[in-house]
Design goal:
A two-stranded antiparallel sheet has the order 1-2. It has six helices and two strands. With about 170 residues, it is mostly helical. The relative contact order is 0.16. It has two domains: about 40 residues, no CATH class; about 120 residues, Cytochrome c-like domain (Cytochrome Bc1 Complex, Chain D, domain 2). GO terms for molecular function: electron transfer activity; heme binding; metal ion binding. InterPro entries: Cyt_c-like_dom (IPR009056), Cyt_c-like_dom_sf (IPR036909), Cytochrome_c-type_DH (IPR051459). It comes from Trinickia symbiotica. Keywords: Heme, Iron, Metal-binding, Signal.
C-alpha cells in the first residue's frame, strides 16, 4: 500500500506542474501535508502508531463516545452491532460483527481511527483507539479482560474469521 502511495505521489509530482500550467488548476503538495493523510494500517500492523490501551480504558471511552450509537455493550442501536454474530455467517441474514466477520484486529484499529466517532472522525488519540480496540475485542471474547494492546500486540491478535476470506494472490498481500 505504501509503495503504491509513493508511486502515486511520484507520478503526481511529475504531472502536477504540467497540469497546473496547462489547465491552471492545482498545486504541488508538500510531503508534510500529504503525511497527515497517510494513516493506513496494514494487516501486519505496519503503520500502527505509538501508544497503548486497555480493556478498562476502552470501556470508559466507549461509554463516552460510542454507546449512543452502538448501544451500551456494542449490541447495536442507531449504529451497527459490534458484538455477537458468532456462527451466523452462513445464515440467510448473517450478522457481520467484529468477532464474527473481521479478519484482522489491525483493520479494526484502522477503521476506528479513520471513521469514528461518526460525528467527529479522526478525533480519537492513538491511546483511545488502542483502548477501544481492546474493549471491543474483549466484548467479542477475543482478548482477555486484562489485555493491553499496542503496535506489537495488536497484529498478533488472531481473529476468529481470519481464514474466512479468499487468499489474495498479489505480491505482498496478507
Amino acid at each position: 500500500m505504501r509503495k503504491a502511495l509513493a508511486l502515486v505521489i511520484s507520478a503526481l509530482a511529475c504531472q502536477v506542474p504540467t497540469a497546473s500550467a496547462e489547465y491552471g488548476l492545482g498545486a504541488p503538495i508538500a510531503a508534510s501535508a500529504l503525511k497527515r493523510w497517510d494513516i493506513d494500517i496494514a494487516p501486519d500492523g505496519h503503520g500502527l502508531p505509538a501508544g497503548s490501551g486497555t480493556v478498562a480504558a476502552g470501556k470508559q471511552v466507549f461509554a463516552a463516545k460510542c454507546a449512543a450509537c452502538h448501544g451500551q455493550t456494542g449490541e447495536g442501536g442507531i449504529g451497527d452491532p459490534l458484538v455477537g454474530g458468532a456462527g451466523s455467517l452462513t445464515n440467510v441474514k448473517p450478522q457481520k460483527t467484529i468477532g464474527s466477520y473481521w479478519p484482522y484486529a489491525t483493520t479494526l484499529f484502522d477503521y476506528i481511527r479513520r471513521a469514528m466517532p461518526y460525528n467527529a472522525p479522526q478525533s480519537l488519540t492513538a491511546d483511545e483507539v488502542y483502548a477501544l480496540s481492546a474493549y471491543l475485542l474483549h466484548l467479542n471474547g477475543i482478548v482477555p479482560e486484562q489485555a493491553r494492546l499496542d503496535a506489537k500486540s495488536l497484529p498478533k491478535v488472531r481473529m476468529p474469521n481470519r481464514g474466512g476470506f479468499v487468499p489474495d494472490p498479489r505480491p505482498g498481500a496478507m
